[in-house]
Amino acid sequence: METIPVNSIEFEYVYVANQRCACGGYFVAVRQELRQSPSGPVDHLLARCEGCGAERSFEFDIRSFFGQWERYGRFRQTDERFREAMSQLRAGRLAEAEAALRQVVDAEEGEPAFAWGHYHLGRVLLLEGQAEEARFHLERAAAIQPLEPEIHDALARALRATGEEEAARSHFQEGAALRERFPTE
Ligand SMILES: [Zn+2]
Q1: How many Å lie between the centroid of ligand 1 and the Cα of residue 56?
Q2: Which of 37, 44, 50, 156 sits most deeply, having the most CB atoms within 10 A of its CB?
Q3: What are the Cα distances from residue 13, in Å, to 18, 20, 58, 160?
């Protein structure tokens, strides 16, 4: 199994809660266990789908902060940056939102596996006319959370803006198919 890079324990739970089961339900972590692997400490989370009860396990690479107490609790900063970005976005301040979102997904200071961070950064970049970079972040978001229709829609718009019409169409279709598969009440 591929380990997921994280910079905080809190984010492990956020990551799991954002993962969608094939039934459309979301996962909840039910058990956490620290394990030692040859390459370093790995946090193992067992999760259960709220919809169908299916279990899935996740492995997080915690080498970036393990044993460094001053680095614990860093997710609070990332979460604050994310909230700040959302309020800048609502106020139409794209440059400020972009700067905050770059910190949110920063590999050292933020959480590089935070799909909604990449999603919003991609949308902001697209609005700013930076389609190539928007596409990069939206592809990251889609790779982390492949079952979210709005991520496919945004990726499709970025692909269209970079001239990849065929790929754009396939992601628009994927978004529509997911919406049909998981109708929202
Ligand atoms: Zn399920």
Answers
A1: 10
A2: 156
A3: 9, 13, 10, 34
**3-state class (DSSP) for residue 126:** helix
Q: Specify whether 110 is located in the same domain as 34.
A: no
For residue 117, the SS3 value is helix
Asked if pLDDT for residue 22 goes beyond 90, the answer is: yes
What's the pLDDT tens digit per position in 120-144? 999 999 999 999 999 999 999 999 9
Total of domains in the chain = 2
pLDDT tens-digit map of 81-128: 999 999 999 999 999 999 999 999 999 999 999 999 999 999 999 999
Beta bridge partners of 29: 47
Domain boundary residue, one of 43, 71, 99: 71
CATH code at position 26: 2.30.30
Q: How far is the CA of 36 from the centre of ligand 1 (A)?
A: 29
Distance, CA 46 to ligand 1 centroid (Å)?
Answer: 14
pTM above 0.85, yes or no: yes
Q: Taking ligand 1, which is a single-atom ion, which protein residues have CB atoms under 5 Å away?
A: 21, 23, 25, 49, 51-52, 54
Ligand 1 centroid, distance to 146 Cα (angstroms)? 15
User: How far does residue 80's CA lie from ligand 1's centre (Å)?
Assistant: 31
**Do residue 82 and residue 41 come from a single domain?**
no
